[in-house]
Amino acid sequence: MDELSLVFGALADPTRRTIVERLARGNATVTELAELFAISQQAVSKHLKVLEHAQLISRTRSAQSRPCVLEAERLDAAVGWVAENKQVWADRHDRLEQHLARLRGER
After folding, report:
1. Which of 16, 69, 78, 89 is least crowded, fewest Cβ atoms below 10 Å from its Cβ?
2. How many folded domains does the chain comprise?
């Protein structure tokens, strides 16, 4: 699977998006992340594995804990793809508006 598909696939789930949003504010342990949800710590760990596979997060060693760290640069490809395609659709919308304006002028 390509990098962009891994990133979008990982971000497709609202729980994982919430985890990414939380980690954007700073590192957190699995226990801290689990407190955000009404799901088990084991379920949160499964979501973290998906995010790790997409390389959106990593885990570091800090004494006895293993905090999760957001790897924000991995979002760059997704951000770039969205920006590029947003421009494509904006250009298409502009051309459609021009075409409709011409059609209205012909009537």
Report:
1. 89
2. 1
The pTM score is 0.79
Give the containing element (helix H, strand E) for 41.
Answer: helix 41-53
The 10s digit of each residue's pLDDT in 63-104 is 778 899 999 999 998 999 999 889 888 888 889 988 888 888
Query: CA–CA distance from 90 to each of 32, 40, 81, 87 (Å)?
Result: 41, 43, 14, 5
CA 69 – CA 96 distance, rounded (Å): 44
Answer whether 30's CB lies under 8 Å from 52's CB. no
What is the phi/psi pair of residue 43, to 5°?
A: -65, -40
Centre a 10 Å sphere on the Cβ of residue 4 and count the other Cβ atoms it contains: 13
Quote the domain boundaries for residue 61: 3-106
